[in-house]
Specification:
By secondary structure, the chain is α/β, with parallel strands linked by helices. Helices cover about 50% and strands about 15% of the residues. Strands 3-2-1-12-13-7 form a six-stranded parallel beta sheet, sandwiched between helices. The protein has a four-stranded antiparallel beta sheet with strand order 5-4-6-8, with no helix packed on it. It has a three-stranded antiparallel beta sheet with strand order 9-11-10.
Length: about 475
Amino acid sequence: MAKFYVTTTLPYVNSAPHVGFAFELVTADIIARYRKLCGDEVFFNTGTDEHGLKVYRKAMEEGKDPQTYTDEYAAKYQMLTNKLGLDTELLHFIRTTDPHHKKAAQELWRRCRGDIEPRKYKGLYCVGDEAFIKESELVDGKCPSHPTMDLLEIEEENYFFNLKKYEKKLLEYLNQESVIVPEWRRQEAIKFVENGLEDFSVSRLKEKMPWGVPVPDDDSQILYVWFDALTNYISTLGWPEDAEGNFKKFWEKGETLQLAGKDQVRFQSIMWQAMLMSAGLPTTKQIVYHGFITSGGQKMSKSLGNVIDPIALVDAYGADALRYFLARHIHPFDDSDFTMEKFKDAYTADLVNGLGNLVARIMQMSSQYFDSPVDLSDRRPPLPVTKWMEKFELSNALVAIWSDIGILDDLIQEGKPFEVVKTNKKQAQKQVSYLVKELSRIADNLQAFLPETAQKIHQAIKENKKPENLFPRKD
């Protein structure tokens, strides 16, 4: 039994959950469930990043104490994990305001202390990225990721991490083909290191930014939010005490997988790995980077009115409908467009008229032609989707499953058991028995992707009755 650890990034709690993070959560949950079904022991981590200037400013804007503010938003993200139907047996939700996490972040600092020194610094700071931006990275004088935000010119004495020291070790790490998926993101990381690394600030003056984890032995400084937040990947496992042995089991001896957006390469595959190296801890085995989700070809924004609310979608269509669209119609690595029109088209074509209609037709005939449930003992094993799952190509796995759904539709249309039964009931029973067995295979394959739907199909087969409409038609 393999030990498998998967984690999302931790979103800032400066705004409500958006569909981009829902995609990361669903992807992680599908991978976690799949590995669980394969017999592995799985630890699934997510949570909220609650410190930093961006969060502090937002709390001040709303006239709230930062802890009160973060408590409210953390609850919204926890609600999203419930709405999306994540596996609660596997899921661990961490908050960077948790007392244990704060202690872990301070301990990581202590272990990296040999590579940390105080310096005076002057630079341009992007609150959106919570990072300093080099002048060479500016586009029309703005941060390329947040062109509508003004950069702050900051001049103060902070602690800096000696990132440049780890150029050689980072290149050795990145030259392992499996450490980053997709390959072009690995090449991007390698190029970034080859172009030369700059040491990065790992603290902020407390008098200017009081909301964060105190620097050990220096009350005038607060840990830089990224140094604090990145520690969650191991603090969630109980590091450094490791009282339950999860860190040793999953991080040291297991497979570690991090999911992140394409704008995170510098933070996740360079800064975080250097911090781990400095602390004498194992590096992450693999990081998968996904693209951004746009709406109507544009970045989502309230002013454009194109924001997709994942919670509202689940309330209207069900968790499995959103899980399906995100896994099937959002590319695992490239940018993808999400509009309500596309979502509704997929819902109607693939779920209402596709899977939902197929289950209703097969189970209607089965309940009419048989007095007891179909014997599944000689059915074929489920479609092997390993080759797609190992490459994190969830969309291709679903394409293959929906191909099987299409085949069953064709068999019904060609064999017409609903007509055959009028003259040859045994032949019709034979046809429907095969269809039920194939439907059972499909339900097995859907367990990781659409867990609620898969359970309903299995239950319908077990009880030999047509289930309630799996995907109600919407106007």
